[in-house]
Structures are given as structure tokens and as C-alpha cells.
Amino acid sequence: GCSPTLMSKDVIEEVADAPEIIMNKRFNELANMRGVDGPVIPIAVYRFPDMTGQRKPATNFASLSSAVTQGAEVFLIKALQDAGKGKWFQVVERASLENLVKERQLIRSQRELYEKDQAKPLTPLTVAGIMIDGGIVGFDSNVGTGGIGARFLGVGASQEYRKDEVTVVLRLISINTGEVLLSTGSSKTILSTSAGA
User: Fold this and answer.
1) What is the arrangement of strands in the sheet containing 155-174, beginning at the earlier edge strand?
2) Closest of 10, 32, 28 to residue 20, by C-alpha
3) CA distance readout (Å), 48 to 7, 72, 77, 83, 173
4) For residues 45 and 132, is the Cβ–Cβ distance under 8 A?
5) Where is pLDDT greater, at 160 or 6?
6) Could you give the CA distance from residue 76 to residue 66 in angstroms, rounded to a whole number?
7) Which helix (H) or strand (E) holds 79?
8) Which span out of 23-27, 66-70, 95-99, 140-144 was modeled with the highest average pLDDT?
9) pLDDT reported for residue 9
């Protein structure tokens, strides 16, 4: 009960570097995609919610932290902007649409107040042809667990691992017709390790 869990340097570096390496590789693949044959596609991304309601797994206490990010649309928008070095999609703001509309109303009222009849109207917002919808629909913790360890008279060492799985679903929707043009899902495994002494 008094022994702390210590992470070895190799385990810390392996776990800390893995997500960054994977993310950089994925974004490099997106950036190096060939451009589209035609104009850039205006696309809208609204909120991309966590539909799991899962909390971070903890063995000794109830965790109040969410297991997955609550701002996944930020990563999706960045991925769309990076696709083909920006030659695929023109991402239009929809996640903070309410704030955007308020700011435009403020500008309009200020122009009318100070410029009177000479007030220039704002250019219209760009309208998207398609939108992406979906969310994080699954978080399964402890899909696989294991480890090794030994203890003698309260002194020992152990190494443990845990596998979690995250599932994301995306839908590409035509704004003109409302038709779901494409629906896809992806599941990825998250591996956590710890070494204790």
C-alpha cells in the first residue's frame, strides 16, 4: 500500500513519443495527398462530440475527467485544412457560428452608427456544399490487460499494460439534397504501460 508506482525512463519516452510520431505521420500523409481536379471544396464542420460519456479509467477512485477529447472538431478541421496542402477543402466556420454571427452583427451596427448612409455591407458568408457530421461513438477500456511482476516481503517490481479502443464515425452529407454521400468508421487501439517498484 505504501509503494509508489515509478515509470522507467524508457517506458516514459516510448509512451510520450508514440502519439506525436503517429500524429505527425498521419498529417504528413494528408499534406502530401495529390490536389483535386477542380476547385477547392467548401466544407462545414459543426461540433464533433464525444458520444461515449466515458470517464478516464481509474482503479482506486472515481475519475471525473473524460476519457476522450471534448474538442475533436479542432483535430478534424486541422486535418481537412492540411489535406493536399490546403488544395482539397475550404473549411468554413460552423463550430462557433453563434459567436461569428454576433460579431458580424456588432460590425454591422457600428458601421450603421458611424457611417450612416455610406455604411458598406459585409460580404456574405461562404456557403458550404458539403458537411461532415459524426462523433466519437465508442471508448472501450481494458480490452486487454496483462503484465509481470514479483514481490517478496513487500519488495518487488512489476510491469503492466492496458489496451483501450476508441471508435470514431464520420458522415459526409450533401447540403443541397441532405443525402449521406459517405459513411465511415475507424477504431484505434491505445496502449498504456507502467513499470513499478
Assistant:
1) 89-93, 41-45, 130-152, 155-174, 180-196
2) 28
3) 34, 6, 10, 19, 14
4) yes
5) 160
6) 19
7) helix 72-82
8) 95-99
9) 42
**HSE-up of 71 (CA within 13 Å, CB side)?**
4
Give the phi and the psi of residue 21 in degrees, each rounded to 5: -65, -45
Q: Angle at CA 73, nearest 5°, toward 68 and 78?
A: 115
- Nine cell digits for residue 108: 454591422
What is the DSSP-derived secondary structure letter of residue 122?
Answer: P
Reported for 91-96, long-range contacts at CB under 8 A and 24+ positions apart, including other chains, are 91/43, 91/44, 91/45, 92/42, 92/43, 92/44, 92/125, 92/126, 92/127, 92/128, 94/44, 94/45, 94/46, 94/128, 94/131, 95/45, 95/46, 95/47
| Angle at the Cα of 171 from the Cα atoms of 30 and 101, rounded to 5 degrees | 90
CA distance 110 to 153: 76
19 CB neighbour count, 10 Å cutoff = 10
pLDDT tens-digit readout, 80-90: 888 878 788 89
pTM for this predicted structure? 0.61
